[in-house]
Amino acid sequence: MAEEKKGNIVPIAISLVFVLILAVGVYYLISNKNTTPVDNEINLVEEQEEMNTVQDFDEFTFNTITPGTGAEAVLGNKVSVHYEGTLIDGTKFDSSYDRGIPFEFILGGGEVIQGWEEGVLGMKVGEVRELKIPSSMGYGEYGAGSMIPGKAGLIFKVELLEIK
Predict the structure, then answer these.
(1) Global pTM?
(2) Per the structure, how many domains does the chain have?
(3) Residue 101 belongs to a domain
(4) 118 and 143 together in one domain
(5) Active site residue 27
(6) Which residues sit opposite 141 in a β-bridge?
(7) Does the annotation mark 93 as catalytic?
(8) Which end of the chain has less neighbouring CB within 10 Å, N or C?
(9) Which residues, 6 or more positions from 136, have their beta carbon under 8 angstroms from its beta carbon?
(10) Is 12 in the active site?
(11) What stretches of the chain adopt beta strand conformation (E)?
(12) Residue 131's domain is classified under what CATH number?
């Protein structure tokens, strides 16, 4: 009689496992019932947009990395600088150091972005500053070229080489 009971347990166990698998499948179908392929595509687009969120600064700031000892840059001066520009995530988009050619502009002449005008003003020859520039003082809503997206905060390391 004990062997007859063992023989009955196996089919019952198999039936229970089958019912459990069926219940999980039905639950899965019901829980995804309201999701259409269009909904799934929208969710993927939203996730992609979140991953591509551009970072920005709330305000302009600068830090002196190396103090300068030479003349101080004032409005109207033609200045010569070396620089490296990166996005907040560290992506480098430009560097005069890499080209080996300093960049020259007239301070206050409207030749550069506002963050540079304010960041270079008052620098002394030999000084190196890190400028953290919000998009409103950089390239704004539309960015610049393919390397600087719109609404991107910028970080520049700027070295004042000469005042001409």
Answers:
(1) 0.68
(2) 2
(3) yes
(4) yes
(5) no
(6) none
(7) yes
(8) N
(9) none
(10) no
(11) 61-66, 78-87, 92-95, 103-106, 128-133, 154-163
(12) 3.10.50.40
